[in-house]
Structures are given as structure tokens and as C-alpha cells.
Amino acid sequence: MSHLFSKIKTLQPSVDDRLSNKAVSPFFRDALQTQLSHTHLSPSQLQYAIFNYLPGWVNGLMKLRNKLVKVFGFEVGQTSLAPPSDELNLGDQAGFLTVIEKSGDEIISYADDKHMTFYLSVKKQNGSVIISSLVNQKTWVGRIYVNSILPFHYFIARIVLNNAIKAKRI
User: Which is more confident, 3 or 52?
Assistant: First the structure.
């Protein structure tokens, strides 16, 4: 499947970055990297350029997911990751995520419920962008959920990033 996403590199997540400092076992972490055509964009603008354009079928899957997991006590407010603006500040909402850290090279957002805490990092590094997610699994229900969605996460994360590349937004 790597030929479908030839411009996206799967990275071994860092063990000494801002996001790794938030990891609490058991957790899942992954990282994807691609070269930027628009190196002038801030991490916030990159987050907008990538996640404001989710395919309709992804939003549909999120709505279905919310109906299924609500029974187990998961937070099911928004289904989107779309930020309201291309320049986010601390405390701003980016879909169901809240911005908790922002620097010149990285923006980190999160969502929390009783089963897990999800973090998303968008980091600029040497002419590229690294998108990394971290999920701290607090309960056995959270662990089952994360393990059951990993195949979807793998594919959707790459589709969304690849769409931003093909549309020349990043």
C-alpha cells in the first residue's frame, strides 16, 4: 500500500518530543511525515490545510462511530477535526479537539474522555510536516476501541494527508 502514499513516510515516533512527554501506558502513538511545498505555512495553518478538508465519507464514518460508542460512555460531540480558522490559539477548538500547546514549530491539540485521551501534533521540521497522534488508553474499553479502529486510522490518516498533498494545500 506504500505505493498509494509514496510521498508519505511512516516514522518511528520520537521518544523525547513534546507529545512523548504526554504518553501514559498503555498508549498508541504514530507519526507520518511529508515534504512541504508551502514552507511558509505555520503549524496552525498546516493543521487547517490538512484537516479542514476531510472527505465526506470520513465524516460519515465518524457519525457512525459516535452512534456506536456513545453506549460505552465515549464523548461524542463533534465528528470533525476541522479548525474554524487557519490560525489557532491556545484554548481554541479544532473540531472535537482543543489546542493546548502552540509554538513556532508545533501545535498540539487534544480530546479527553473517561476511556482515553487523544492528542494530535502538527510539527514543522526541516521543510517537512510531521503529523503525530498519541492515544492514552485509560480503561479496557479504551484499549479495545483503539485496537479495533487501528486499520481505519492507518488508512484514513494517510488518505487525509495525501489529499492535502495532491490538492497542493501543503
Answer: 52
Burial of 67 (0-12, 13-18, 19+ CB in 10 A): exposed
The single-letter code of the amino acid at 100 is: I
Q: What does the DSSP 8-state code read for residue 126?
A: T
Q: How many CA atoms lie within 13 A of 162 on its CB side?
A: 17
pLDDT tens for 111-125 read: 999 999 999 999 999
Strand partners, 134: 29, 119
Place of cell 510536516: 129
- Residue length of the chain: 170
Q: Yes or no: say if 153 and 131 are a contact pair by the CB < 8 Å rule.
A: no
Q: What is residue 118's DSSP assignment?
A: E
Cα(142)–Cα(61) distance, rounded to whole angstroms? 18
The DSSP code sequence of 62-107 is HHHHHHHHGGGT---S------SSSS--TT-EETTEEEEEE-SSEE
Give residues with Cβ within 8 angstroms of 170, minimum separation 6.
Answer: 34, 36, 37, 38, 41, 46, 49, 50, 129, 164
What does the alpha-carbon distance between residue 169 and residue 153 come to, in Å, rounded to a whole number? Answer: 22
Confidence (pLDDT) at 6: 92
